[in-house]
Amino acid sequence: MYLTKEEEAILNGELGYPYALAMKVLTTVGDSLGAERLIPVVHAHVSGISYFNIGDAGLEFIESLATSGARFQVFTTANPYAVVARSSYGSLPDDLISKQLKIVAYLRSMGARTFTCAPYYVRRPSYGEHLAWAESNAVLYTNSLIGAWSNREGGPLALLEGILGKTYASGVHLREERRPRCFVAVKTKVSSPLHFSILGLKIGELCPDSIPYVEGLENMSEEHARAFLASFGSTSNAPMVIFNKLTPESQELLKDSSIDEKFSVDLNDLRDALLSFKDVQGGESVLYFIGCPHLSPNEFTYLLRYLRSRGRRSPDKRELWLGVSESVSLDEETANYLSKIGVRVVKGMCPVTTKLSLMGINYVITDSGKALYYMPKLAGVKVVIKDRREILEEFLGGVQNEGL
Amino acid sequence: MCKTKVYEVSRIYGSRSVCGELKVSTHSFSFLGDVVVENAEVRGVGTIARSVLVVPAFVGSTVGPYVLYALSKRGLAPKALVTKSVDPTLVAGCVLAGVSLYKFVNSSVDFSELKSLEGLKACIEENLLRIGPP
Question: CA dihedral defined by A309, A310, A311, A312, rounded to 10 degrees?
Fold first, then answer.
């Protein structure tokens, strides 16, 4: 790989240990992928923030970087952390909370701006920008809807790329790698975020490691696209989806591609998937959760208005958590009202990567296909997927869910 | 007398020559969940500390590098990993931990045959993995 004089100097230790280590990792990764050079990035987004994901090993590593003077050289954000807030269900053990807060503090000391899985709402990328993002939903969003360029980095790699402000010129940083090899025709009208979530999971299963070209979703809203992409990223390794007429240059990308597999998805495929989901059994400790990925500013505003206008009949111990970026502001009066009706705004936090079973939660009811996929493994809970409206009605109505 | 088995590998990172006890997982391997960091034990494999660990593929993106790093800090990391497919996160983990990484040239390597050789001495030199009696 060709390195500039400045890059060579960093590799040789002129800026100190953390930068030399980052350069060593990045150049080795780049070499293994056949990259000819490094390229500057304008925004790095780090994943692997929850203590439950990275454990003491990850905390040790981040601590070693922060305490040896590593600082992010470009605008850098990080994924949300485990839910350290106390709730009506309980809270995490104090020692785990302490470790989680240390991870957050170290990353802040290195210059992380905020914690969210939707960095595109913190700093919106521009078409053609090169980024070093981890977090699958964010990478998929920025490649597929904006036309910025980012590989699906692993968390530690994105962290090191933020320290250097560079990435390797390989993968979807190269135009020729942004071509679809899998074609999917959606033959049914899809209208709810829930259905888009399920569709994303399904198409990810059909195209687990190749970029799909998807026809039939041309009128999809941004909210629906996010639900689709977040779920797609759970079942597929691909860094982007090319939506016909939505993704910048979609038709040019299709023209020069060679499609290996073609599929068609219709309503029966979605119906079958939805029928396989069971409901909550009576007597379980249930949490309602909306916000995977983190809610957009519009979604959050709408939900706050809706919750205030409806109120909650017979509030009980069950809570509704809304996942939003740490940078979202919430006035005290609204926060107090929400608290009274059992709504908790978990700013900068992620219930999906929190061992919720340690907080006494058995079941989560959510509208997110990504949460449906990951929470049983990561959070140690059973998950039920329902439409957002149904979740709100059930929560606000105070209807006790007696199960099947 | 045991014959030496030889496999062609390409070096992705690390030493040009390394030796250790052969340890084999016949399934995809995740550092998160499959390894006890305190003693480098893996169910069905035993300890992977200072071994030449052979695995079809490594899965689980975010945590792998950190676990490998933690093993390395405790002196319990494998000396080398040999696998069929390599991704950037695995490469990053090996560099962070100082663990050599190799890839099989022939992707249709027989892992049940490799498993039968577990416990023997494995040495990698000049892009050849040789497995034979200790």
Answer: -170
CA distance A199 to chain B (A): 23
Residues 6+ apart with CB under 8 A from A129: A42, A43, A148, A149
Q: Residue A347 belongs to what H/E stretch? A: strand A343-347
Residue of A143, A209, A145, A203 whose CA lies nearest to A178: A143
User: Cβ B62–A153 below 8 Å, yes or no?
Assistant: no
- Residue A161 dihedral angles phi and psi, to the nearest 5°: -70, -35
Specify the pTM: 0.90
Tell if the CB–CB gap between A54 and B12 is shorter than 8 Å.
Answer: no
CB-CB neighbours of A221 under 10 Å: 11
Residue-wise pLDDT tens digits, A350-375: 999 999 999 999 999 999 988 998 89
Interchain pair A48, B63: CB under 8 A: yes
Q: Which residues, 6+ apart, have CB-to-CB distance to A8 below 8 Å?
A: none
CB of A54 less than 8 A from some CB of B: yes
**pLDDT of the residue at A283:** 65
Question: Worst-scoring range by mean pLDDT, A158-162, A207-211, B21-25, B86-90?
Answer: B86-90
Q: Using the predicted structure, report yes or no on whether residue B29 has a pLDDT greater than 70.
A: yes
Of B12, B37, B87, nearest to A57 by CB-CB distance is B37
Backbone angles phi, psi at A287, to 5 degrees: -115, 135
Exactly one of B10, B17, B61, B85 is catalytic; name it.
B61
- Who among A24, A48, A160 is closest to B62 (CB)? A48
Q: Is residue B112 among the annotated active site residues?
A: no
Tell whether A56 lies on the interface with B, counting CB pairs under 8 A: yes
Per-residue tokens: A297: 């500013």
ipTM over cut 0.85: no
Mean pLDDT of chain A: 92
Residue A262's CB: how many other CB atoms inside 10 A?
11
Phi, psi of B109 (to 5 degrees): -60, 140
